[in-house]
Specification:
- There is one protein chain.
- The protein is mainly beta.
- The chain has one domain (26-230, 241-254): Lipoprotein localisation LolA/LolB/LppX (outer membrane lipoprotein receptor (LolB), chain A, Clam).
- It has 4 helices and 13 strands.
- Strands 1-8-9-10-11-12-2-3-4-5-6-7-13 form a 13-stranded mixed β-sheet, covered by helices on one side.
- β3 and β4 form a beta hairpin.
Amino acid sequence: MKRRTMALLVSLSVGVVAGLSSLGGPRAVAATLSKPAISEDASSALAQMGTALRARAFSFHAQTIRVYANEGGVQLHVVHDFNVTVRRPDRLLVDGTGDDGPRKLIYDGKTVVVSMDDGKEYATLPVPNTIEHMMQVVMGRFGVDFPLADFLTDDPAKAFLSGVTSGREVNTVTIDGVPCRHLVFAQPPGIELELWLEKDRAVPRRLIVIDNSLHDSPNFVAEMTDWNFDAHPVDADFAFTPPKDARQVNFSAFTGELHTGDSR
């Protein structure tokens, strides 16, 4: 799956997490293209989403499915559940579990901690003092995926459209009784994005990312629920105390362990 170079980073599998890799690839291609052909309805929907997600504090739940190839080249699917808590500008908690065990990312404004196996193994890294710049460091330097990371940036609409060349609204559908706007976008060289936004609140409800250069399809699916904009997280929610006999490792040791979000 594509790692997007952010107009920053979000998938942290969810994702989130997010175009934070190199300055080449899709972003470089997009720079040579004309102004993106984004329809007025799609642009309006994303602008509303961006406004909603720039709230100072919120939380949500995400279930993600992503595709990866094992050592034998067999395409497998791994499922994760994440509870994400955001307090802008400098606090983030991603608490996840899945087919490959529990993991957390905890950011307190100065340090990011990534823990595995209920904290029995963890790594820390000093980082800048905003969520966006923290994600730039973690994703750009170590290749760690955040789930649905575009939605956690300072400008979620702009981050989501990074490298996108066209987009439009398809129709309105109902997901679990909630009317949602169904949007589709294209990003060279072969990325297709489908995004469903709740019609009233403009929060993401579903995201599918397909990379047509790969044999598996879809490559990433996320269902987002339980959006809470009345959350009041305190500093203690973003603190990490390692359990007794926990093993601290080098942060780079986790690079291959944490591909849990949308890595567009």
